[in-house]
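Pasting as-is:
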Amino acid sequence: MKIGLFFGSFNPIHLGHLIIAETIYDRTDLDEVWFVVSPQNPLKKRKSLVHEFDRLRMVELAIEDNFHFRASDVEFHMPRPSYTIDTLTYLSDQYPQHEFSIFLGSDNLKQFKKWKNYEQILEHYQVYVYPRPGEKVDFSHPSVKEVDAPLLDISATFIREAIQQERSVRYLLPDAVVDYIRDKKLYF
């Protein structure tokens, strides 16, 4: 099977993530999309992250009705911080029958050459790039494929701030995720 890996902190997962994942799934030859919840991104500060198990549960709730999406906690069991190449290598070893690729926003493509062993990623894996507001894809490589996807500017930071201010997040998050955040009193 061809598996697209969508890495992220998903703090929280929102409709923008789901729209991008569905669009890339629909416009490529992927069989499944795995949402890889990253406990600690080496390029981001940890202070605003809710517990990784809460973020994983929110992903599970958000995708429960989509048979070609899966939530993955693979990085929970790996050294931290998480590096994409290490996760790709681990998954390729564990699932040699699968072919893995990754999703990347055009905004993150600018930092791609700062990633650990980015050359190995390009050598062994397909990289699907989706558009982000104000960012052009300025990276040419046979392994990098731009995917025509909606230009979305939904930010988890905006959502967390809205929750803290007790403002509506309706239509930004799946209802099950909103209920979970309220029940667990996350981001308040």
